[in-house]
Write a structure and sequence with these properties.
Blueprint (H helix, E strand, L loop, with lengths): L1 E10 L8 E10 L2 E7 L10 E12 L1 E3 L11 H8 L4 H6 L4 H10 L2 H17 L2 E7 L6 H17 L3 E9 L10 H18 L5 E6 L6 H13 L5 E4 L7 H7 L4 E4 L5 H10 L2 E4 L1 H6 L8 H6 L4 E3 L13 H12 L3 H7 L2 H6 L17 E4 L6 H4 L7 E5 L2 E3 L2
Parallel strand pairs: 1-4, 5-6, 6-7, 7-8, 8-9, 9-10, 10-11, 11-12
Antiparallel strand pairs: 1-2, 2-3, 4-13, 13-14, 14-15
Helix pairs in contact: 4-5, 5-6, 6-7, 8-9, 12-13
Cofactor: Zn(2+); Fe(3+)
Family: Belongs to the metallo-dependent hydrolases superfamily. HutI family.
Function: Catalyzes the hydrolytic cleavage of the carbon-nitrogen bond in imidazolone-5-propanoate to yield N-formimidoyl-L-glutamate. It is the third step in the universal histidine degradation pathway.
Length: 401
């Protein structure tokens, strides 16, 4: 069906900039954009539907390219403890931290995990998100990781949002493998990844490269196993220390390296050469009260594409708003509103390997867009919270969340 959407201004985000079209019109045919431009240049045609967008600013649908949306339990109590002076180490020694989330996730049924994740995902969708990546990593054994990945697939099937599934089995060391990290990595490479990939549950593979998680050598084994299975890789890197995991990710043409507070200029050069996207996570930076800023100057200098994401997770970024991440990126990382919007549209799409079809409003791309009743695109990074008036279109069809 051919549909006309008019009486709007468009920030198409082509080439990662606003690329504004004033007094614009968009023609969609089925799930794709057939034409976009100034309304005065609109070609004559018969349209099955015509929508007046009442002067809205239209952007691509927002893309949250790094989340841990599926998990059991709740760690707000730990948040309160930390603010009362209890250290993370003390909480972990008492069975808290990621170990508590793993226990709760393993104990939860698939339906229970789906129900709780659905609520969180709906919050993000109400914020204009039309595509999202969700990682596993709170199961840490084959059956539990499978359960999480099945929930991720189900979310994409039952809600009007595009969902990419990432296996993050190399997230932390499970208790049954205490002091045996190499054995756990071998289990991931030889048993978990082949089984989960064969079941069609995995779109990409991630790992946590950090002194309190896995070494670069261990991560490389995971990357090699993923490569043999034909799966792209991503990496949590340089969040707490500099292990040059982002350079390792670049050597394996990773889709992205994420966090990156402690990355070096050499890492940025490597990422630029490989096309690996830098995914910055201001929610975790804020929530943990970090002071080490990502090397913004080096990323810009070497032309590394910068994406942003919520990092929605129970321990370090319980964020339910991508728009809030835009403001945090501008305020904490000194990004411009234009850079921030590119970070949750075109560059986020590239971080998921979706930039040929998503992330900007161009002919031939998927018709995912949001018509915002705002004064200018910068308003998306300006307002703190709230529910901005909007109309959300996914695959050429208006959706209500």
């Amino acid at each position: 069906m051919k549909t006309l959407w008019q009486h709007c201004n468009v920030a198409s985000m082509a080439l990662g900039s606003y690329s504004i079209i004033e007094d614009a019109a968009i023609v969609t045919s089925g799930a794709h954009i057939e034409w976009i431009g100034r309304r005065e240049q609109l070609p004559a045609s018969d349209y099955q539907q015509v929508h007046d967008l009442a002067g809205a600013w239209v952007t691509p649908g927002l893309i949250d390219c790094h989340t841990h949306t599926v998990f059991g339990g709740n760690r707000s109590g730990e948040f309160e403890q930390r603010l009362q002076g209890v250290s993370y180490a003390e909480i972990a020694a008492a069975g808290g931290g990621i170990a508590s989330t793993v226990r709760a996730t393993r104990a939860a049924s698939e339906d229970e995990l789906f129900a709780s994740a659905r609520k969180r995902l709906l919050s993000l969708m109400r914020d204009g998100v039309t595509s999202i990546e969700i990682k596993s990593g709170y199961g840490l054994d084959l059956s539990s990781e499978r359960k999480i990945l099945r929930v991720i697939r189900r979310l994409g099937e039952e809600l009007p949002v595009s969902v990419r599934s990432t296996c993050l089995a190399a997230h932390a060391l499970p208790p049954e493998y205490a002091e045996r990290a190499d054995d756990y990595i071998e289990h991931i490479c030889s048993e978990m990844l082949p089984a989960l990939a064969a079941e069609g549950l995995v779109d990409a593979v991630d790992a946590f490269c950090e002194y309190l998680a896995f070494s670069p050598a261990q991560v490389e084994r995971v990357f090699i196993a993923a490569q043999k299975l034909g799966l792209p890789v991503k990496l949590h890197a340089e969040q707490l220390s500099s292990l040059h995991g982002s350079s390792l990710a670049a050597r394996y043409q990773a889709l992205s390296a994420d966090h990156l507070e402690f990355m070096t200029e050499d890492d940025a050069i490597a990422m630029a050469a490989s096309g690996t996207v830098a995914v910055l996570l201001p929610g975790a930076f804020y929530f943990l009260r970090e002071t080490q800023l990502p090397p913004m100057e080096a990323l810009r200098k070497h032309g590394v594409k910068i994406a942003l994401a919520s990092d929605l997770n129970p321990g370090t970024s319980p964020a339910l708003s991508v728009r809030l991440m835009l403001n945090m990126a501008c305020t904490c990382f000194r990004m411009t509103p234009e850079e921030a919007l590119a970070g949750v549209t075109l560059h986020a799409a590239k971080a998921l390997g979706m930039d040929k079809t998503h992330g900007s409003l161009e002919v031939g791309k998927v018709a995912d867009f949001v018509a915002w009743q705002i004064d200018r695109p910068a308003d998306l990074a300006y307002w703190l919270g709230g529910d901005l008036e909007k109309r959300v279109v996914r695959h050429g069809v208006e959706v209500t969340v």
